[in-house]
User: What shape does this take?
Amino acid sequence: LGGLTPPARRAAVHFAALVLQGVVVLLLLESARELPTATAVLGGFTLVGAAFAFVWFRWVMIPHTLDMCFGMLTLGNLGMLLGWWADNGFVPLHDGGCRACAEAARGEMMAPWMWAGMLLFANAAMLGLGRRPLPRGSSHVPAMVTGGNLGMVAGMVAGGWVAAHLPADSVPLAAAVGFAGMTAGMVAGMLLGTWLAEELIAAARAERRPPRGGAPSPASGILSDEIVRR
Assistant: This one.
């Protein structure tokens, strides 16, 4: 990667993150390791990763909001899956075709390392994996690391709760539904939380800003008296 431009290196990270998601899926689901299924899983994640990286690299003026979503779907989801695997003791989920097994797999969701992995990798994507440099001197970066993070956590909780109430009779289906629900919640929560934080920061700055044409401050009045006396 040393000879690549910075955008090309970041595109390669997007690609690698999606390929590695496929690897972690196989680590979580033992039944997916049979050759035809494993080939389909790894091939699917590789194709999606290549498409994501190509579009992201070619789209120089990608809207920042969409750029953030790319990071959530690549690096953020990788952190979530790695944390899920860690929370399960680095062994596959309780695989099987029974409802009790599916419920047990759902019980592994929302554990500490899943949170840590998601937040660590998602923030790395937001702060260092953008197509263009982040705007400096604005409220956007503080809003991302405050409201954006709170929104991601709340969104994952909401998405996981909804997924847990959907019918699933097998571990792979329960895991897929849970992963999709938490991903959708994470992305939506990040966007909404960042927007709300930006609005609050803008409102707080407006409150501190003195009104135009208002009464002079005491300090300015003292300065005017000194000028008159001189």
